[in-house]
Amino acid sequence: MSNRTKTWPGRQAAAIWCARRSVEQRATVHRALEDVRASGMPKSQVELAAATGISVEAFRKHERTYLRDIKAELLTRVVQDEEACQAWIALYRCFATRIKAAREVRALQRRLVRLSIESLDRAGKPITYTAVDTLTGLGSQRVAAELRAWEVETGRRRSRASMWQPVTLATVLPLIDPALHHMPLTFLDDPRAHRPLSATSLRMICSLTPQGLRNTAFFCLTLAEVGHSSDWCFFGALAGFLPALGLADIDALDPDTFYPAFHDGQVLPDVSAPSRAHWLQVYFRLLRRQQSYFERLTPEQAHGLAPFRLQAVTSATFWHRSLLYKQVDEERRKRRKAATAAVHDKFYLFRDIAGRRVNQLVRLRQAFRDACDRARRHPDTSFPVAFAYTEEVVTPTGSARTVTHRFRLWDGHTLRRLHAPVAPKQYYAAREAVAMTGYDCGADTLFVSYEGASAGCETVEQAGFWFADLVRSGGLNYDPDPAFLAAHGYAVAGAIFPPARPDWPRSVGRWLKRVAADLGLLFLPVDTLMAAGLIGHAGLQIMTKTGARVGEVLQIRLTREHLTRAELPGGKEVIAFRAIPKGRGAEEPFYIDDRCLKALHAWFAFLREHEGRAAPVPPFHALRRKCEPAPYLFQFGGRHFEPSDINACMRILLHGVGVSTAQGETVRLSAHLLRHGFATEMRQLEVPLDVIALLLKQRDVEVTRYYAQPTPAQLIDVQERIFLDRLDLTRTHLRAPAAIRRQLEDARGGVGALVPVVGGTCTVANMCPAKFACLGCAGNAPDPAKRAQVEEFKRIYGDMVQLASGQGLRADERKAREVVAGCEDMLAEMALIEAVERNGEQAAEVQYAQADQHSDNRGGRR
Question: Is 14 helix (H, G, I), strand (E, B) or coil?
Fold first, then answer.
């Protein structure tokens, strides 16, 4: 008998023993995993192997079948209620570390995100990125991608979590002395009869460290009820003054010593004179409110609240005799009027440049979309794709030139491949899973880089886009170049930060910034520029033609009753939007023309393209007391725009248009400055102050008088007319027809409406501001179709100039010359309108070319 035959029974027994041992180990492993599942506490393989007495290798081998069943159960289990959802999430977390390398991990993670979203929705909680990331713990890229997919599939939008931790009254009260918890005659005593503290005031009170200052701030802000921002800013500044003075709390501050010395600049000399004047004005205003509040209290109530009052100076003579605030206010008014003069002189130029630049952005977006569609239709496209288009550009001087713009179209794969060799070491090591798709921006996401432009012999800088340096400096990003902002007169980064950024997520923007810096490229955020241009154009059109406040423009809602066409008696049709003016409680109409409506519709079309139907959103903080959530026109991403957003878009659209005062100071364009310019324009047209007040929706005519103060240029013009009138009066002082005609014009000026007039259409409601002097009136919107009317009037009044000149009628000659000048201005404006319309009708004819040798050397993908 051979040795093999002799050992066979032993080998068979060993195999049987090994099989039994494997079955026992498998059973032991499965029991251990069942215990883990029952406890809901995940454990590592090393811990379980040690507890069962099985080697780690054997434990890993025997748990595979169990984990396979767990994955199948997680993928197929039906989840219909919150209890089943929490059970699914608990089971996933028990074995998440074991199945993270499985092929089904993406499907499991996707279901985890969806179940977390459903759980938040059932609980009535906002579906935010932070909330979903907290529940899942998957990391930013996976959560962001699944949230975007959920938005596309459901048509809903995730909520934007606030960057600030909410501070409520319940948060502040434990920090305040108990004696202040029930202040009489305030919202703490009767919430329905008094206004509560604002969220900003509560946050400021919570941030104060000295206990005495915190109690005083709470006391003064609660009794004030008005909620001026300057009130809580007063206490915020005082919190910074105390450490600089070496004081621990407000109790150590001697008011009779500090406030007069602060007024004279003897203490805290680094504080500017305007800041000192404003701060002291708020101080005395708070004292007056405090005194009025104590007069309404009983003696017992006043005694209990006396320790928390803001300490008053014994004598306020220094403030009553002070000229500090008056000097500061006069200086501020001079600067405002100088800026108004600079802006007022360029009203028509602003609208013309804005219209042409929006047309240019439309052609750029059309060319970019055509290039993207062409690349997607051909899957074998080799990136980068070079393309160009030529357009005719009208310069501010009225001349036209032909410019050719050159671009390259990129995808994320090609950019990553080109960037990897020049990127810092380990830049892509931790991001390898997402770097190949451009930071999870999607396989279909394409980018366009601007390669320059040419216009005859001009250089790239002279012929290129007006926004090229703005993009290159990072002005549209989250971290713009401070030197660029200072050079162009932008005080803060938010001054040119667009409110709508639909091109790519923030993480992709950071990646593109790195790629652009390392490869020397200039990527254009086409849709972001388009959004800023449309918003800025709409704002300029409305504010230069109506003088409306920016808060009133932001109230435009997409409803029939708030933005509509109305028919006046006689069949005349007008366009109006309704809004609640400042200090009013009811809506009033604001009349606009067709060009304003077209600008509004252009932004609405862009909004509808990106977000579908405009959903109701809460108004921005300053409007929440008088406006309800509604489908506002100026919104994006579920957020209602703020005044700073409109100002930023107007500055972006007019970037590079130099506006400076006569002293050479750069003027920062704003909606409020345009309102001042509108009032100045109306006053120049000899519109009565009470009528201007009606147009501006102002109750105080004195405020209107300040708005409509003449500019230095207007004063010079008036002085020239005075000299001319004196010369005329010495010759024709007995002539009465002119006075009679002036009286007739005054009588006729008492009526009027929006009607067709010579050369265009009147856009001023209720009363004719120019006394029917329509030619050259700023309220006359020129219509190129009526050019023949203006030319006929120009010919007639030209003959009148010669007739009056021949007879020595200087006053009549001057009047006729004014009409002729008005005709020439209208004809020039008609030419500009026709040029803009021709410019807007241009279509971007895109020309494609194969990648040149330079791009081939930089790499590509086929």
Answer: helix
622: helix, coil or strand? Answer: helix
Rounded-to-integer distance, Cα 549 and Cα 674, Å: 9
The answer to whether 66 and 33 are in contact (CB under 8 A) is: yes
Q: Above pLDDT 90, what percent of the chain?
A: 18
The predicted structure's pLDDT at residue 713: 52
Of 656, 695, 691, 651, the C-alpha closest to 673 is 651
The Cα-based distances of 505 to 429, 528, 772 in angstroms read 21, 12, 54
Cα dihedral 808/813/815/818 (nearest 10): -160
Residues sharing a CB contact under 8 Å with residue 628, sequence separation 6 or more, in sequence order = 619
> CA-CA distance, 498 to 334, in Å (whole number)?
30
Number of neighbouring beta carbons within 10 Å of residue 268 = 16
- pTM (2 d.p.): 0.65
Contact 245, 267 (CB under 8 A): yes
Whether the pLDDT of residue 434 is over 50: the answer is no
Instruction: Tell the burial category of 170 from Cβ atoms under 10 Å away from its Cβ (0-12, 13-18, 19+).
Output: exposed
Q: How far is CA 427 from CA 421, 422, 424, 435, 860, in A?
A: 10, 10, 6, 10, 21
Q: Residue 522's closest CA among 470, 451, 461?
A: 451
- Please name the residues in contact with 837: beta carbons below 8 A apart, sequence gap of 6 or more: 784
- Tell me: pLDDT of 671 over 50: yes
Q: Are 616 and 630 in contact (CB under 8 A)?
A: yes
Query: Pairing between strand 639-640 and 446-454?
Result: unpaired
CA 140 – CA 703 distance, rounded (Å): 52
How far apart, in whole angstroms, are the C-alpha atoms of residue 150 and residue 128?
Answer: 12
For residue 14, pLDDT over 60 is answered with yes
3-class SS shares of the chain: helix, strand, coil, % to 5: 60, 10, 35
**pLDDT for residue 640:** 92
Q: Is the dihedral of CA 633, 638, 643, 647 positive or negative?
A: negative
> Looking at residues 785-813, what average pLDDT do you find?
86
Write the CB contacts of 486 (distance below 8 Å, at least 6 apart in sequence).
none
H or E stretch at 388:
strand 385-394
- For 218-234, how does the pLDDT look when each residue is reduced to its tens digit (9 = 90+)? 999 998 766 677 887 89
Cβ neighbourhood burial of 36 (10 Å; 0-12, 13-18, 19+): middle
Q: Where are the beta strands (DSSP E) in 254-377?
A: none
Is the Cα dihedral 525, 529, 532, 538 positive or negative?
Answer: negative
